[in-house]
Design goal:
This is Homogentisate 1,2-dioxygenase. This protein has about 425 residues and is mainly beta. Helices cover about 0% and strands about 35% of the residues. Bound molecules: 2-(3,6-dihydroxyphenyl)acetic acid and fe (ii) ion.
């Protein structure tokens, strides 16, 4: 099925599933057309600077406040904030791809396994990286579960299996190679076709935005036009749902006799978005030296310190390497920022072996890392003809705060216990 989308990051959209629903020239008329309720959803403080300000008006069959009381919902593998991680030794860590279980029913909520955490959701800073292992839909095939995250925005990076994401504001189809950005507080359900694996960044801090482009100019990297928002859509026949809400690091459940997918029309600039990484305009060196990976930033969540991100979403897409007299893979480095990486497909040039699609790695603040022995050997002697890196997509969640792995992630069965060996062959070649 081909869906219709609205185009443009941060645009002020107006969309109606029933024509004539949106009020004209005002937001909250005495009576909304078709007997609907008007409801305002804000994503930033009312008084946030205009360039950052995000809010949307929804016109719906019943306001979100019509819901039963919430009781705790057990999901012990979903962790929140630094306090729920383990203070592990400052070693580089790598995980093999974790298989999607077949014996246990896992939807997008029950399938969350938190890998690393930092910050504090209550203080609205930091992030978590999750791996989500899914073998059940949430909203089709008899299931009727909806999720709302009050702790943060969710960036979904599907690795295996396409996702159909129903949201209060409409439906997004998101396949591996694409990503979805779901705002804090907006209800959604994730449906899958089969065993699926998704990397997720749960961002407790400022909403992701496009990075500044500086001397790059007015075009390049992720262009605003390529972000796609859903058109308004609502359920024709209301039926009961289970609402699961995350707030204060705890999951809660309530039932409601209709789904939150009852928004007939909406307008505003706070909405779910999808983005196809194939549209990323990759910029690199056309002279010499390997540039800093900040040139690959798709989205950034700023912290209170200019230039120092709460979390950046960075991709390593297919691209040409042409730099002369240059060691072309990433250099060896100790980075003040902390780096969580995943591989959607193919090979990553710094780690041709061992870093496998569906796998993950963690190089925390100032933990030394870089190309493995094999990559160093090849790149030090390769003929420097133009080379196209093809069929590859790695990504990084890079944060100013150290990430603590969870107890789940530190299980020896999941970790690549031999990771450090990939550098053991880097011999001393010094010739005085
Ligand atoms: O460590 C990594 O593989 C990520 C990375 C890539 C790069 O091109 C430069 C720096 C960096 O941290
Ligand atoms: Fe790095």
């Amino acid at each position: 099925m081909t869906r219709t989308y609205l185009s443009g990051f941060g645009n002020h959209f107006a969309t109606e599933a029933v024509p004539g629903t949106l009020p004209v020239g005002r937001n909250s008329p005495q009576r909304v057309a078709h007997g609907l309720y008007a409801e305002l959803l804000s994503g930033t403080a009312f008084t946030a600077p205009r360039v950052e300000n995000r809010r949307t008006w929804v016109y719906r069959r019943q306001p979100a406040v019509v819901v039963g009381g919430y009781t705790p919902y057990a999901q012990p593998l979903w962790k929140t904030g630094l306090a729920e991680g383990v203070n592990a030794p400052p070693d580089p860590l790598r995980w093999h791809p974790v298989p999607v279980p077949e014996d246990t029913a896992l939807d997008f909520i029950d399938g969350v396994r938190t890998v690393v955490v930092n910050g504090d959701a209550e203080a609205q800073n930091g992030m978590a990286a999750h791996l989500v292992l899914i073998n059940r839909p949430m909203f089709t095939g008899g299931a009727r579960r909806c999720f709302i995250n009050n702790d943060g925005e969710m960036l979904l990076v599907p690795q295996q299996g396409a996702l159909c994401i129903t949201t209060e504001l409409g439906v997004l189809d998101v396949a591996p190679g694409e990503v979805a950005l779901l705002p804090r507080g907006v209800a959604f359900s994730v449906d899958v076709q089969g065993p699926s694996r998704v990397y997720v960044c749960e961002n407790y801090g400022a909403p992701f935005r496009l990075p500044e482009l500086g001397p790059i100019g007015s075009n390049g990297l992720a262009n605003p036009r390529d972000f796609q928002a859903p058109v308004a859509a609502f359920e024709a026949t209301p039926a009961p749902v289970q609402l699961i809400k995350k707030a204060g690091g705890q999951l809660w459940q309530a039932t409601q006799d209709h789904s939150p997918y009852d928004v007939v029309a909406w307008h505003g600039n706070l909405c779910p978005l999808k983005y196809d990484t194939a549209h990323f305009n990759t910029i690199g060196s056309i002279s010499f030296d390997h540039p800093d990976p900040s040139i690959f930033t798709v989205l950034t969540s700023p912290s209170d310190t200019p230039g120092v991100a709460n979390v950046d979403f960075v991709i390593f897409p297919p691209r040409w390497l042409v730099a002369e007299d240059t060691f072309r893979p990433p250099w060896y480095h100790r980075n003040v920022m902390s780096e969580f990486m995943g591989l959607v497909l193919g090979q990553y040039d710094a780690k041709p072996e061992g870093f496998r699609p569906g796998g993950m790695s963690l190089h925390n603040s100032h933990v030394p890392h870089g190309p493995d022995t094999e990559a160093f050997g090849k790149a030090s002697s390769a003929a420097l003809a133009p080379q196209k890196l093809e069929d590859t997509l790695a990504f990084m969640f890079e944060s100013r705060w150290r990430m603590r792995p969870t107890a789940w992630a530190l299980q020896p069965a999941l970790l690549d216990g031999a990771y450090a060996q990939c550098w053991a062959g880097l011999a001393d070649h010094f010739q005085p």
